[in-house]
Amino acid sequence: MTIDLEATGLSVRYGGNVAVDGVDLAVPTGRMVGMVGANGAGKSTLINALAGWSRGTPVVRGTVRLGGASMDGLSPHRRAAQGLVLVPEGKGIFSELTVMENLALVRPPADTTGRHLFSMEEIHELFPRLAERRHHKGGMLSGGERQMVAVSRALRAAPRVLLLDEPSAGLAPRLVYELLETMRKLVDRGLSLLLVEQNVRATLELVDELYLLERGKVVARGPAAAMKNDPRILEAYLGSLTA
Amino acid sequence: MNILQQLINGLVLGSGYALIAIGWTVLLGAARLVNFAHGQLYMLGAFVAWAVMTKLGVNYFLAVPIAVVALGLLGVGLQGLMLRPVMQQNLTSLMIVTLGFGYVFQGGAARLFGGDPERFVSPLQAAEIRIGEIWFTWQDVLTLVGTLLLFGALWLVLNRTRVGAVVRSVAEDPRLAQLFGINAALVYIGVFVFECAAVALGAGLVAPRSPILTSMGFDEVILTFVVVVLGGIGSVTGSLVAGFGLGLFTALFGALVSSAYTTAAAFFVLLAFLVLRPRGLAAR
Q1: Of A159, B21, B69, B212, which sees the most CB atoms within 10 A?
Q2: Number of separate domains in chain B
Q3: What's the pLDDT at B278?
Q4: Assigned domain for B111 exists
Q5: Residue percentage of chain B with pLDDT more than 90
Q6: Angle at Cα B81 formed by Cα B75 and Cα B87, nearest 5°?
Q7: Cα–Cα distance, B182 to B169 (Å, whole number)
């Protein structure tokens, strides 16, 4: 199995606060890896650090490799250009730009080795609603539609590895499931995906592998089937419903 | 007093205001950045064109493009120096830094070009057109037409091209733009270069109206602030309308009331307007 994205000893500090502490992580080609944990466990900080991106000014240590190439020291736009594409939590599109303009901001790369290309037709097939909404400004869309645009934008960038940070935040449960199932389909077609989620139940149904993050450290990892029965997961996230 | 003449004066003045303001408008609107050296950049634009004409014997029509390019290059350097506060959107630092640049330019220009008023002459300034009682110069026509063309082209680029969408995306959220693969730093440099180049063009077309001084910077652009704010910060169409509105107001107020109080009156109108419409003309 080849590894598309690999992080070793990744640590992120904000001032004196250690938000992520020595995390090792690997996303194999064509696999969907889930990352769960409580609020404040460091999930978003971690996935942002993989993309080299932040709204603050963190200090990041450790190494990140994409398909064997080091990403260390590369700015977020360079990482995006190489196929390490992040859909951040919350605001993921421009509200002053139309759906079409948002999508046209990204352009597929010249060198497509290892990349997953998505044509506009495929995007419209995945999210038919976007075709109808293409001339609407981002600010006029519903939360679900915005998330569709954000994911579509990432797909148009021809990702090698897609990083999704809580795509379900603020969405109705049915939409969450639809969106995650769509993601699963893409992974089955060969895309490598790292998903950060609050919704542990939905995540466990779809991912191949799961990491549990607590206070910035990976406290458990393994195949989804095994993690379903991990006492920490059962106790903290699934509760008595599956116990 | 001839009202028609005053209206023409107003349009000519207004196109000058709008032209000098456009760089600021784009900088504020498209990059959410401030540049308080705008006036001194205007002064430098005029003096570079003047120096190229008087020292090198280049004619006016080549001197102005040379000044535009020179100021554009200066813009690259300035933005390079300011990149860190710019990327952090640290507006307070930028205000002080650009104010500082302004004074450095003014002092440098005084050393380089001297402190005396100079005559920056356009050959079109003397080419008059008279229709009955009304008169204007070919320089006025050039300023008016140049302004309209520049505004039109800018509007098209900002609203109808991918480059424009990139600029608008960086204006809205530079951090998010990075995730779209956009080099926000490069976009800021581009916008800043446009500002410097546009103000140099404004100086090239407007400054020949009167003698130029190295200390003229701030006073010459003071009404530009009114145009930018009145138009609705960052609105290209708004600043064109505000520029013409202000030009007409200045011309008519000067003719009907007193030209000594024009600037004060313009700011009074701005205050009154902003009480009623805090976000300017372009507010939706």
Answers
A1: B21
A2: 1
A3: 79
A4: yes
A5: 63
A6: 95
A7: 9
Interchain CB distance below 8 Å, B169 and A81:
no
pLDDT tens digits along B157-181: 999 999 999 999 999 999 999 999 9
Specify the amino acid at residue B52. Answer: V
In a domain, B124, yes or no: yes
Residues of chain B contacting A86 with CB distance shorter than 8 Å: 179
Does residue B126 lie in a domain region?
yes
Tell me the whole-structure pTM to 2 decimals.
0.89
Chain segment B184-216, per-residue pLDDT in tens = 999 999 999 999 999 999 999 999 998 999 999
Strand runs labelled E in A67-143: 69-70, 84-87
Which B residues, 58 through 97, put their C-beta within 8 Å of a C-beta on chain A?
88
**Domain-located, residue B149:** yes
For the residues A97-101, what does the mean pLDDT come to? 96
Q: Which amino acid is at B244?
A: F
pLDDT grade, residue A136 (50/70/90)?
very high
ipTM over 0.85: yes
A97 contact residues in B (CB cutoff 8 A): 165, 168-169, 172
pLDDT band for position A242 (cuts 50, 70, 90): very low
User: Residue B160 sits in which domain range?
Assistant: 22-217
- What are B145-155's pLDDT values in tens digits? 999 999 999 99
- How many beta carbons lie within 10 A of that of residue A70, not counting itself? 10
The CA distance from B213 to B215, in Å, is 5
Q: Nearest CA of chain A to the CA of B178: how many Å? A: 5
Write down the pLDDT at residue B284: 56
| pLDDT at residue B283 in the model | 64
Mean pLDDT of all residues in B27-52: 91
B182 touches A: beta carbon within 8 Å: yes
Closest among A236, A203, A208 to A222, alpha carbons compared: A208
Domain, as residue range, for A206: 3-241
Provide mean pLDDT across the span A117-121: 92
Q: Residue A52: left (phi > 0), alpha (psi -120 to 50), or beta?
A: left
Considering CB atoms only, which of A88, A96, A107 is closest to B179? A88
Domain count within chain A: 1
Query: Quick check: A77 and B169 CB within 8 A?
Result: no
In DSSP terms, which residues pair with A63 in a beta bridge?
Answer: A8
- Give the whole-angstrom CA distance, residue B259 versus residue B265: 10
Tokens (6 digits) for B148: 């309209």
* CATH (domain of A144): 3.40.50.300
Of chain B residues 149-168, which have a CB less than 8 A from chain A? 162, 165-166, 168
Q: Is A100 on the interface with B (CB under 8 A)?
A: no
- Residues in chain A with CB shorter than 8 Å from the CB of B179 are 51, 53, 76-77, 80, 85-88
Helix axes B60-87, B184-206, angle to 10 degrees: 150
